[in-house]
Amino acid sequence: MSHIGGRFASSAMRSAAAEPTRLVVEITTVDAPPPRARRDDSAPRGWREREREDERGNEHRRERTHQYLLLSRQHDDASQSNRDSGGRHPDGGTADRRERDSVNERVETWMAALEARQLADLTFPEVSRSLRALSSTYVERRAKLKEGAALAGAGKRAAFALFYGPLHFLLVQHIVARLGRPFTTIESVVDLGCGTGASGAGWATACATPPRVMGIDRHPWAIDEARRTCADLSVRATFRVDDLTHVTMAGQPSERGKARGATRGAPPPNERGHGVLLAFAVNEIADDAERNALRTRLLAHAGAGGRVLIVEPLAGFVAPWWQEWQDAFAAAGGRADEWRVQVELPPIVAKLDRAAGLNHRELKGRSLSI
Fold this sequence. Notes:
- By secondary structure, the chain is α/β, with parallel strands linked by helices.
- Helix content is about 45%, strand content about 15%.
- It is built from 13 helices and eight strands.
- Helix 6 packs across helix 7.
C-alpha cells in the first residue's frame, strides 16, 4: 500500500494525520488461498468448474475473519496516547481487538445480506455483464451518469450495489481513518448523493464512536438500499429522497433559489462536530452554477467549524472542475490527497472483479478535505 500525499495541506492537519506505515498489517492479515492443483491446460474448462474453484478459494478466505476495518479512530488516537505515555501499542489490547472484530462482523453481515438480495432474481453472469456495461459508463461515457445511467435497469443496480458499494465503503473508511482527528471525532455526517449508503457508513465505521448519518439521494431505489446498508452495519442513519443541490449543509430541505445562490451570513454556530460528505457525487452535477454554489456553501460550512470531505476517482479527465475546487480548498486551509490502497476484497466483489475483467488490486481515489 502506498499513500501519495496531497499537493497542499495546512501544517496543523498534516500533523494530525497518522504515520503512513501503520496500516499495512490491518489490510493484509487475510491469508492467501492455497495453491490450486495443477491441471491439464489442454482440457476444456467450463464456467461451472471455474465457479467451483472460486468457491474453494472463498471457503479458505472465510476461515479467518476479513480485516475490513482499515483503521479505527480508537486505534489511531490510542496509538498516539500510548506512545506519549510510554504505554503498550493498542494492537495487543483487548478493547481495540474487540472494536475491530465488531466492525468486521458487521461488514460480513452486510455483505452476506447484500449478496443474497442482489442475486435473488439475477444470475451471477447477468450481474457480471451488467458490471462490464456499468464500468464502461463510468470510464468512457461518464456524462451519462448525470442522466441516471448507473441505475438504469435491475442488472446495473445490482452491480452498482454489490460491486461499487463495497469499494466506496473501503476507500472512504481508509481516507477518514488516515485523516484522523477531527474527522474521526465528529458527531454527525450528512452524506450528499449517498447512493447505497456505503460511503457514509465507511466514514461512520472509521470512528470509535460512530456519528449519526443523514443520507440524501434523488433515486428512491438508492435510498432503500442505503437504509439496508446502515441497518446491516449498525450505523445510526436517516435518509430522504432529495436533490443534493437543494438541501442545506445540515441535510434539511432548502428553497431552490437559496440553494443556487451564495450563502448569506455565517452558518449556525453548531457546525463544529458536523461533517459533510460527497463521495463520487460532485461530478454528477450537470449545472456549473449549481456546482459552484455548492462549493461556496461547503467552504462556508468549513469556515464555521464543520468538516468537509470530497472523494472522486483518481483519473484527471473524469472531473475537469477538480483543479478549481482544489485551489479554493487550498485557499481556505484544506488539503488534497491521492490514495492508492492495497486491500483484500470481499469474496463476491473479487469474483465480480475477475469475471468483468477489471483489476482492483488497488483502490484508487483522490480527496479534498477541510
